[in-house]
Design goal:
Distance between the termini: 10 Å
CATH architecture of the largest domain: 2-Layer Sandwich
Helix content: 25-40%
CATH topology of the largest domain: Dihydrodipicolinate Reductase, domain 2
Strand content: 15-25%
Low-confidence stretches: none
Number of strands: 14
Structural class: alpha/beta
CATH superfamily of the largest domain: Dihydrodipicolinate Reductase, domain 2
Order of helices and strands: EHEEEEEHEEHEHHEEHEEEH
Radius of gyration: 20 Å
Number of helices: 7
Number of domains: 2
Mean pLDDT: 97
CATH class of the largest domain: Alpha Beta
């Protein structure tokens, strides 16, 4: 069975990857409709030998669509998602608009594919750092029982969209040429710098991005008592996020069993040979489907604890790929018709 599929936010960095991955993964598409803002309407968009014309998103745009992947930001999701669902279109939303809505499944297909069965027309894609972190943590949770973790993220500029990538490139060129460095996307220079600030600050000193790791992790894994402390850092890397994690478990842990759990889990690769300087790095996990896990060792603070390092493509597993995998699960389980 093939479907009429839409992409809202087709001109953005994630939208471009959605177009590419839908075709590369051979998702069964009858017709593809690309939607964006009025300023992009009428522009051509090509992939391979195919060309589409961008259409302005309106309520009527979703008539006749079986599926639409939203990647245009929370405001657009709030504006159009319920309307699309009313018109019979299943929405997979990449924004934060519906993630914590108890009626909306929040899905990482390798972890909770059964959650798609309860959808009422809208499904949510998790935050990029959460999705990538849980790809390393969930197999360990199955082996040892996860209680809590402390995470520090190293988030690529792709997390800010296409303009984040442009700003890093322009600042690096300006620095190399001795020119003045301009800042538009970030409050500080990102080239050759680290910014411990992703998303808006809350009253308790954490950012919204940092609290997503706790709240979304609890929902996806069904662990209502999970404890998490997170610090999110923007780094001068073009693509692929990395996360340093110290995790506490219910059961005694061993490094050997942890490595085997990662090896056996679909969607992760074990890259953990310090003697040969082998560990996951963003350069190696850009435009790569699985997430890499390495630097696994006994934690020096937690009694039943492990320290580990996880790397994954922010635009893929953190956004476009995970959304398409949700669509694939919907197709496999007969929940798109």
């Amino acid at each position: 069975m093939a479907y009429n599929v839409g992409i809202l936010g087709a001109t953005g960095a994630v939208g471009q990857e959605i177009i590419r991955l839908l075709h590369e993964r051979e998702f069964p598409i009858k017709e593809l409709k690309l939607l964006a803002s009025a300023r992009s309407a009428g522009k051509p968009q090509s992939f391979g030998d195919k060309t589409w014309t961008i259409e302005e998103a309106t309520n009527e745009s979703f008539d006749g669509l079986d599926l639409c992947i939203f990647s245009a930001g929370g405001d657009q999701s709030l504006k159009f998602a319920h309307e699309a669902a009313k018109r019979g279109c299943v929405v997979v939303d990449n924004s934060s608009a519906f993630r914590m809505d108890p009626t909306v499944p929040l899905v990482v297909p390798e972890i909770n594919p059964e959650a798609v069965d309860s959808h009422k027309g809208i499904l949510a894609n998790p935050n990029c750092s959460t999705a990538i972190s849980l790809m390393g943590l969930y197999p360990l949770h199955k082996a040892f029982g996860l209680k809590s973790f402390i995470a520090s993220t190293y988030q690529a500029v792709s997390g800010s969209g296409a303009w984040g990538i442009v700003e890093l490139e322009q600042q690096a060129k300006a620095w190399a040429n001795g020119e003045a460095i301009k800042k538009d996307v970030y409050p500080h220079q990102i080239a050759f710098n680290l910014i411990p600030h992703v998303d808006k600050f809350l009253e308790d000193g954490y950012t919204k991005e940092e609290m997503k790791m706790l709240n979304e992790g609890r929902k996806i894994m069904g662990l209502k008592d999970l404890r998490v402390t997170c610090t999110c850092v923007r780094v001068p890397v073009f693509r692929a996020h990395s996360i340093s994690i110290s995790a506490e478990f219910e059961k005694p842990v061993t490094v050997e069993a942890a490595r085997q759990a990662i090896k056996d889990f679909e969607g992760t690769e074990l890259v953990d040979n310090p003697a040969k300087a082998e560990y996951p790095m963003p350069l190696d996990y850009s435009e790569v489907v699985p997430c890499g896990v390495g630097r696994i060792r006994k934690d020096c603070v937690f009694e039943n604890g492990l320290a580990l390092w996880v790397t994954g493509d922010q635009l893929w597993k953190g956004a476009a790929l995970n959304a398409i995998q949700i669509a694939e699960v919907l197709h496999q389980r007969g929940r798109l018709s």
